[in-house]
Each structure stands twice: as C-alpha cells, then as structure tokens.
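Researcher: Can you fold this with adenosine-5'-triphosphate in place?
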Amino acid sequence: MKTIGVLTSGGDAPGMNAAIRGVIRTGIYNNMRMMGVKHGFNGLITGDIDDMDISSVSDIIQRGGTILRTARCDEFKTEEGQKKAINVLEVFNIDGLIILGGDGSLRGAKALSDKGIPTIGVPCTIDNDLGYTDYSIGFYTAVETVVDAISKIRDTSYSHGRSNIVEVMGRHCGDIALYSGLAGGVESILLPEVPFDIDSICKKVIQGKNRGKLHNIIVLAEGVSNAYDVAKQILDKTGIETRVTVLGHIQRGGSPVPFDRILASEMGKMAVELLMEDKSGRALGVKCNDIFDMDISEALEVEKQFDVNRYNTAKILSI
Ligand code: ATP
C-alpha cells in the first residue's frame, strides 16, 4: 500500500475534518502518499482528486463541515458509475480508500470493496442511526447544539408561560431527540420509535400548568408529525399557546465537541493502519469507549436498537 485516498460523502457531520486530519497525518507519518477526493463519490467518478500534505489539514480539527466537501451521487449507485470510479482510482494509482459518511456512504464503501478495492468505512453522521456502533462522529456535537437551543427556548418559554415545540433532525432515528431531550430536561420527547399520542402530551401540558410550571418544552423528532400541526392541536385541546422552532441545518454545523474530535482522530488513524495491514471491507465503530473494526456487510445488517432505558429515564424525570 503506497497511496491512500480519502473522501467525505452524504450529509456533512461535525468532526469530518478531524477525521480527515487523522487519516492524512497518519498516512504521512507512515510515508504514504495521501490524496483527497472532492465532493464525495462524484470526485471519484470525475477525477476531482488532489495530493494532500501535512499542511493541507492544518487548522481544521476545530472546524465543522468538510474541507473535501461532500455530495450525494446517484451515478455511483450504478454498476457503470462504480466502474468509472475504479478506473479513476487506477489512473491516480490509489491503492486504498477511506470513506467517511453515513449508512449510504458505507454501502458505497462496501460496493467498492466487493469489487476488490481495499476500502475502510468511518461512521460520520449526526443522526446516529448506524446500529453496529454506539456513536457516529458528529452526533454529540449535534446534541450539544440542540441542548444549547433548548436552554435558550426555555428562557422565553418561562417568561411567556408558553409551550414550545423544538423540532430536531434524525430522520427515522430518534437519538438526537432522546439525548437532547434528556440533557435539556424537557417535558416531552416525541420520537419515531414510540407511538405518538397527542392526548398524553396535552395532559402533561395541562398538569404542568396546574402545578405552577411556567414553561413546557417538547422535543419533536422530524418525521413523527408536522410540528405546526402538533402545536395547533395542543392549542385547540388545552388553550395554551404553543410556538414552534425548527432547528434544521444548524444541527449539522458548528465546531465539533471534544468527544467527536477524539473519536474522529482515533478512527482516522485506525482506518489508515487497517489498510496498511491489508485489511479491506471493514467498518469502524465504538462500543463502550473501545474503537473496533468489523466486516462492513455485517455492520450494515445490524439493526439500530432503541434505548428504552434512556427513554424511560427521561420520562420519569420529566413528571
Ligand atoms: P447521512 O446519514 O448523513 O445522510 P449517508 O452517507 O447515509 O449520510 P446517503 O445520501 O444515503 O448519505 O449516501 C451518500 C452517497 O453514498 C450516495 O449519494 C451514493 O453516492 C452512495 N451510496 C448510497 N447507497 C449506496 C449503495 N447502495 N451502493 C453504492 N453507493 C451508495
């Protein structure tokens, strides 16, 4: 293994830059030639690839987003697109590839590995929806952003005596809502994993008001229901004014928290070391603070488990 390429794909996640830095510096430390592929799998198809050196990754560990940029690339899902990518890898003499991204990007990594390209997948997504790993890079930073927003909304909720809904990201996974709801001490957490029951939410709003609570915050994971519809239903059923804040893409940005920087640095280093050991088709993960690698196909088959205990804790503490 002489030359390693790295790319970021799918949704950006804070900590991707720290992972790129970990990859590039480890490769250079081990006398490898390191190359950065731009715009996800698009850059692999079009040959948008540059050499990277120690200073290409200076001053990025603290930056959100990805210096390599990212993209979704439908062409890469096709056989033809993958063949083009493999040709480009040959033209640039890239012997191994490290792919940073979420579920879809790891499927892309698997596709290349199945075709004989030494490939390692590093989990980077704020959604934390990969079942095989406790955490993905970017998740804790997104939670930090949401908790900060909840604290600010709590001030205004208290001052006006209103109910507030905070809509968060996560698609089909409720982890951002669950962790930020627990850390933010909110009254209700609405997740895709738990059936939605408007009456029990309204009951909580009314009970809170009756015992003199001046604020009521509901964290709603996107995809559960329309936040504005839920607000209207609460107003109609309780008479309590309910405001909506959709946090949207601010959850993707920001400086990564130390946990994400450390995870990214360690995973970036390990990804290079695995390629140097001639390993391929591996996905990196973390369980109980230990970073591990496993077969990427098996990793992608592990179903995400909902943390019922954590959900129950949040419920008990929000009575
Ligand atoms: P996030 O979780 O943040 O959305 P992601 O990596 O899951 O990130 P996707 O849009 O699902 O984001 O995938 C990113 C890219 O990975 C796709 O645009 C495509 O190029 C590639 N990809 C996705 N699925 C496959 C697949 N089954 N085979 C090959 N490539 C794939």
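Model: Folded with adenosine-5'-triphosphate in place. The first strand starts at residue 3 and ends at 8.
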